[in-house]
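Good morning,

Both structures are done.
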Amino acid sequence: MEEEELEKRKKKWYLDVENTPCARDALVHGIAGSLVIGALYFMKSNVVRRSCDFAVGGFALTSLISWELCRVNRAKERAEIKSTVTILNKVTEMRRKELEEKKRTSDAPSNS
């Protein structure tokens, strides 16, 4: 078990992109953003080199924004799930106590 964890840690982060949350979406959005920004600038100026510069910048900017938005959304979802689990645990505990109390009252001998 420890050897598997050690192997995972040895693996470089840039080789493990498929298991990184939000990476795929950020890369796809970055590629689409670079194509759009580069094409729009090329249509405006007809300068290929400058259009490529804008495309690279568009990729970096779009990927970064997409990555951060995804991380924020995941953090919100995680917080919501944690609060929901806490509420469910409290409700379960209350229900268990109610059932125990009901069982105790029904098992108690009646004084008739």
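Second structure follows.
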Amino acid sequence: MVDSSKDVNGGFPGDKKIAVVFVLGGPGSGKGTQCAKIVENFGFTHLSAGDLLRAEIKSGSENGSMISNMIKEGKIVPSEVTVELLQKAMLESGNNKFLIDGFPRNEENRATFENVTKIEPEFILFFNCPEEEMEQRLLSRNQGRDDDNIETIRKRFRVFVESSIPVVEYYDMKGKVRKVDALKPIDEVFEAVKAVFDPFYVKVE
């Protein structure tokens, strides 16, 4: 683990070791469901970069307006903005164990996070799921998300493969990727997830 006394511009208490796990997987791979179970069983704080960006937009802040305009124009939000939101949420949580979901989305995200926070992840939890299965799940879940139509779904897959897979490969070379077969039923997937987390963390009773 990393000595956090120098992390996040000295914002974390010096005696706390900060543990970060990046959670990656294609759209519809079941990341959100499994993150909720990890939080419940292992006492992590779950942070979603996408949720933080959406919350910032809703807040009506100057930062939120900038983010909203960039998304409308189809531009990628600068890594620094996303990392600052993650960092703020980490500090405000009071916890020292974090699941960061759907991030880093690309190599620039990854480099910015490590440079700004001085934290390297403990490991990457990667939900491996065939594209056909993810497509079926997204089409059938009908959560009222307007980005769950077939064309948009396929575009999201392409972006994931082009941008996020290089991040997985980078950490794989460092021996930090823990792959889980996300095709199985939810409880079986969580059994595999638990096996990954058991050596690292004491369960919350």
